[in-house]
Amino acid sequence: MIRVLVADDQETVRTGLRMLLETQPGIEVVGEASDGVAAVELARRLRPDVALLDIRMPRLDGIEATALLAGTDVTDPVAVVIITTFDLDEYVHAALRAGAKGFLLKDAGPQLIGEALRAAANGDALIAPRITVRLLAEFARRPPRPRQPMDPLTAREEDVLALLAAGLTNNEIGDRLFLSLGTVKTHIGGILTKLGLRNRVEAAMWAYESGRIRP
């Protein structure tokens, strides 16, 4: 059972998300918060598997709350998925760099929201497809960065990175490359270690920002 905390300043939205999530097998809403400060306090007390946070909230916005719950200096992080009405690139970039493992729009269907929560709970990440396409196109337009991995990626790691950057899940990568799920996770772990990154979203961003991968 994946335990989820929902935070949004509108009660009707929180109620709608709770009702939607209750239709998803294996997901339980364990708490609700109406602002960012309450979300952080409740997440630290309840220790949910995933915190589903809105961007614009009183007292503390979703990005600041994400940094407090999932930032690089947090010793015991909580997985965070951002869900918002505002389809703005600056919000996406800020949320991912703050440590979010997912970014969804509020018009996402129950299946996509459920997939994002399960991915975050399992240490993976999921971004709404239309946002992913736009982000990758933007990264492709940027001048390549000179940053290189501490150790060269192996040929198989390059294959895994390309599929990861294309938005495939671990299972899909395994099916495409005829690898077991455990082997895929091992390769992704090696990629993150060599690149000095925290998660697969950052790895995908690096692949495009470095010019190694093109849409």
TrEMBL record:
Q: Which residues form the HTH luxR-type domain?
A: 146-211
Pinpoint the Response regulatory domain residues. Answer: 3-121
Domain of life where this protein originates = Bacteria
Question: Gene3D superfamilies, per this entry?
Answer: 3.40.50.2300
Keywords annotated in UniProt: DNA-binding, Phosphoprotein, Transcription, Transcription regulation
State the PANTHER family in the record: TRANSCRIPTIONAL REGULATORY PROTEIN NARL-RELATED, TWO-COMPONENT RESPONSE REGULATOR
Its name, as the record gives it, is: DNA-binding response regulator
Q: Lineage of the source organism?
A: Bacteria, Bacillati, Actinomycetota, Actinomycetes, Mycobacteriales
